[in-house]
Design brief:
seven-stranded mixed beta sheet, binds S-adenosylmethionine, 6 helices, alpha/beta, Rossmann fold, about 220 residues, five-stranded antiparallel beta sheet, about 35% strand
Length: about 220
Amino acid sequence: MREGYEGTGPGAITPDGCAVELYTRLSVGEEPDIVSAAVPAGARILELGSGVGRVTHPLLERGFTITAVDESAEMLERVRGARTICGPIEDLDLGETFDVVMLASFLVHAGDVEVRRGLLKTCARHVAEDGCVLIQREGPDYHTNVPRERLDPTGFTIRIVSAEPVGDGVDSIHAEYVFPDATWTQTFLARPLTKEQFEEALGDAGLRVDRYLTEDGMWVRAVKG
Ligand SMILES: C[S@@+](CC[C@H](N)C(=O)[O-])C[C@H]1O[C@@H](n2cnc3c(N)ncnc32)[C@H](O)[C@@H]1O
């Protein structure tokens, strides 16, 4: 387990506290639409932190070719139809480039600045000269609107219970996923980033914002340079 990260509930738990079975139950949202609208048809995508393939599978159905990376073998076992690579994203060096590199699920908000730098450098190292990096950021009130909860239409409740400062600008986030037959929790470290801090972090990795893809600024298309 990564320090500051924890998960509880049935089944395997990843080093960042995610429950494998939980992710098999979560349905996909608008992600495939956002990605499809931002990249060329049939693009070769490197998906970083793919989990069980919640987003991978709908993208494969749309005709993209995907290499899925995750440090959890138990997560990757559930991925079908994509090349899979098991290991930390920070250390990835495949010696090849992709039309699109995806870093979703707020991974860019890693509590550890060195990990964040590593993640973004991996994005820069693997994106083709004329390719793009798609990054998903937290919404603006992610750390302040707590506690909050949402009843998912598929019949479970997601609750962000607390966001407690643990120093150096990092919060420990505690989340609960309550299903009729099971409950999972995840505790993880997240560093809020203003737009300026986010853009500076991109710049440090040799990337820059091409455009914000959604009005809330949560999805970003970045390019080299
Ligand atoms: C919150 S889950 C999201 C999975 C998937 N992106 C989705 O939206 O369903 C985050 C995933 O990223 C993986 N992960 C987190 N940090 C990682 C790292 N530094 N290197 C490799 N995998 C990582 C975890 O194992 C987990 O499967």
